[in-house]
Amino acid sequence: MSRTVAPATKTxxxxxxxxxxxxxxxxxxxxxxxxxxxxxAPGSSPGQxxxxxxxxxxxxxxxxxxxxxxxxxxxxxxxxxxxxxxTHTSDGSLVQFVHRDGFRISVSITRSEQALDLKAxxxxxxxxxxxxxxxxxxxxxxxxxxxxxxxAGIILAAVDDQKKSLIWGQVYILIDDYNxxxxxxxxxxxxxxxxxxxxxxxxGSLHLMNPMALNEKRAAHIKAGVAWRQKLAEQPxxxxxxxxxxxxxxxxQDVGWEWVRIITDPEALKAEGLEPGxxxxxxxxxxxxxxxxxxxxxxxxxxxKDLEIWEVATTLRRTVNGVExxxxxxxxxxxxxxxxxxxxxxxxxxxATSTRVANPITDQQKQWPKPPVGYVSQVDLHRLAHAWHxxxxxxxxxAYDVNSGSxxxxxxxxxxxxxxxxxxxxRPTPNSPxxxxxxxxxxxxRQREMSDGRVFxxxxxxxxxxxxxxxx
Length: 472
Description:
The chain is an alpha+beta fold. The protein is built from six helices and 27 strands. Helices cover 16% and strands 43% of the residues. A 14-stranded antiparallel beta sheet has the order 21-20-19-18-17-16-15-14-27-26-25-24-23-22. It has an eight-stranded antiparallel beta sheet with strand order 3-6-7-8-12-11-10-9, with helices on both faces. The two termini are 26 Å apart.
């Protein structure tokens, strides 16, 4: 997918998706309430095993006998009672449980570049909360991790600008020295007792799959992906059109557009200095308040698939005091049959949420060996978008993810909707929130739903011209 970065504006009293915990290169975004773009899932989340019967326990009366499963890390949790479950969220969490009394518990998994320190993580969480709410008080720090797991938690209280009494908490549970689970609680004081009890029981139900069993499961998903690719080569399905347009809609409003072109003509490629193969060009424009994000995503793969090149460049434009400010960052990749090399130029993170748009640039160079099996190129990620719905159940592939700058296992789960459509849930990396693609009954791709709440709706060039001519 195209890499369009569209950060929100930070305010002093916002602890929704803007509460940032920074720990030696670690950034965690605290989730907000689900938006209209979020997808409620009755019972289990896509990709989980069938609901299982749990033996009744004296301390689990607020949980159901259903399980929520996260396939990439092998995380399992009992689903709380009296909740709506959101597995396609717009805030970066893997799942949200929203209780009928108004409180919510969000679950996310994050990887740190540095070894984790639970004491430091708690201290930084308090610093962030106290910055947003100077009147904060600590009400509980006795949230325990499940047996045989390392963890720490804190629950704080404050009064916001509307005089509401708020409860906020984060509990960290280490998967290993670099990956950790965050369970975040947001509630009003009136629901404190019920909310904290639910959080404690949810933590008590947490299980992690045995590492050997998890590796076997991952390998099985990769094997399923390889088998699907082989089947596709023998029985081709409809290919992506040479040109396609998408409206980008958020909360019912058009905020941008995307144009995708596939070029295979040898003469056209030769004119660009390329050998026979496939070029895909994606242009995206998104408006976020007074900011415009323009992204050009160009990828090439040779016919023999031994060479792959891509470049993604995003430019942020904003007018400040009558002067247009810009910042550009990019991701450039080069893949041979042996290795994948990437250079990322990123603006300082502070600049993305400030009025100072011109920012210092940080260069990052990364390299990985090409996976021997199961790798999907950037070209195929686009070209096969019209075929994912033919996957039988679940499958995974290794692919480079532009948004996170990582080579990761990309997981697909195919389900049927009550309306007879096909929904494909995609987790680009093990720590990424879900994306969703909807196909109609004829197998036509109708829309892509991103984790940030934006929906890409298939349309025509004429409709894009009409919409954006009116806006201009």
